[in-house]
Amino acid sequence: MEQRYRWKNKQLRNHAAVLDGTLPPTILLKNATYLNQTFRKWMTANIWIYNDRIVYVGENLPENTEQCEIMDCTGMRLVPGYIEPHAHPFQLYNPHSFAAYAAQTGTTTLINDNMVLALQLGKKKAFSFINELNDIPVTMYWWSRFDAQTEIDHEEEVFSNSNVRAWLEHENVVQGGELTCWPKLLSGDDMILHWMQETKRLHKKIEGHFPGASEKTLAKMMLFGADCDHEAMTGEEVRRRLMQGYMVSLRHSSIRPDLPKLLDEIHELDIAVYDRFMMTTDGSSTAFYENGVMDELIRIAIDHGVPVIDAYNMATINVARYYNFEHLHGNIATGRIAHINILSDERNPTPVSVLAKGRWVKRDGVAMDEGKELPWSEMGFAPLELDWNLTMDDLQFSMPFGIKMENSVITKPYSISIDVSAEQLPSNHDECFFTLFDRKGKWRINTVLKGFATDLQGLASSFSNTGDIILIGKNKQDMIAAFDRLKELGGGIVASENRVPVREIPLTLQGVMSSHPVMELMAEEKQLLEYLKDKGYKFADPIYSLLFFSSTHLPYIRITQMGIYDVMKKTVLFPTIMR
């Protein structure tokens, strides 16, 4: 039977019984100097924990300590578990593995994008998956997307009114968005506006996605119901959002590592209203998290002049107040979920010990048991099965123009001037064959990609915005060899030379995620990045390049399930070809 409330009546009675001395706490943190956000100062108290909940914070000690674990916290600093308000937990890593890694660095609550669940799983399986994750130590919340952020077949079915409303009504969903579809909204799409109205009716937040937005656009989006935006890239853009009433999420990610610059400009402009700021890593690629998750952002904030307490608040209580779950998260106080980080020093936000839902996930610098592995196949994340073969006939190129990379994620059209009829392109230029295949083998679209590499022979990737298959390379035979190895793996990213795979990242969860722990995946991703740089990739993040080739929320030309798409004109320039 589904549990409708966070704690059942019997559990609540047990919590009160601990105060009466009838039951002992499960953990007692004595002499704890902790961050009290009500008084905005460090205070000393005893913290009683019963299972997953803080049941008392104050001067008293429990009468009953039988079988209670007691830890003397003298000399330590305790802060609430950190909250990542804008996670994309499918960037090669999976939600379970990322949560386990994030918890080691003190991030014990994640607010997650549901895009992959919406596109790859049916609603029933997606909700079952979400419920399964409720049992892990990290608290997982979700968004409800309103669009696919690309042009896809049957979008009206995936993002039907009934599906979106079911997501919005789910108790683990705390916001709608992010609003990558805002141009459609401004153009008069009343279905999106209806979903925003439903989100507000349910007293949930709406996350914007407004890069480069003018003051007028920001004002309009606020009128429509947007609450927060994470796309400010300058201090002036932060000021513009604050002026229109937004909560501002300051971003520091693998493709936009902006936090130091933003903070410096915020201070120069004298707009440091810290209670209106959150921080996010915005779903960075794995290697970017080597130095931590939210703890690294707190460290950057402290180093760039943010007062220590405000730096912690931007990753804890500010987020909890914004999402209206301050009664559960964001502070160390009676009644809250027992997410607590124990620090050696207040200026070092990486914890030496971490409690998540009252369980030790890290103790004295040592990772504790990460718990059970998930039954991935049962939940719809089986290895990718491709029952079709790639042939040389599929790699015929006659497109009059190609796609040019301006940076990791922005792509423009350009006229093709090279001969693309041969099996091999030379290495004296940065143009490669570029193909998107339907994962079921029904269609393809072939063009040329400029700027990705100079000497890459063949690369195949099932990691993409929609889970369709990307092929890039100078040599058609190596492109086929990389694809064949991808099939053997059950999904992944594979590079091939002389018909032999030379680098690979297995993505055996539906072809879009790895089942490996984040540290192991980090090593695999670093090897791939070094390889691609050696082959001429010159931008910041090839993982995001692969993900965003199809993403129509970015300018200017995209390769999609409909064909090559002009984002500004909202038209298909060249349709896909049926195989």
TrEMBL record:
The keyword RNA-binding does not apply. Transmembrane segments: none annotated. Keywords: Hydrolase. Residues 78-361 form the Amidohydrolase-related domain. It holds the Pfam family Amidohydro_1. It catalyses: adenine + H2O + H(+) = hypoxanthine + NH4(+). It comes from the Bacteria. One of its GO terms (molecular function) is adenine deaminase activity. Residues 409-570 form the Adenine deaminase C-terminal domain. Its EC number is 3.5.4.2. Belongs to the metallo-dependent hydrolases superfamily. Adenine deaminase family. PANTHER family: ADENINE DEAMINASE YERA-RELATED (PTHR11113:SF6), N-ACETYLGLUCOSAMINE-6-PHOSPHATE DEACETYLASE (PTHR11113). This is adenine deaminase.
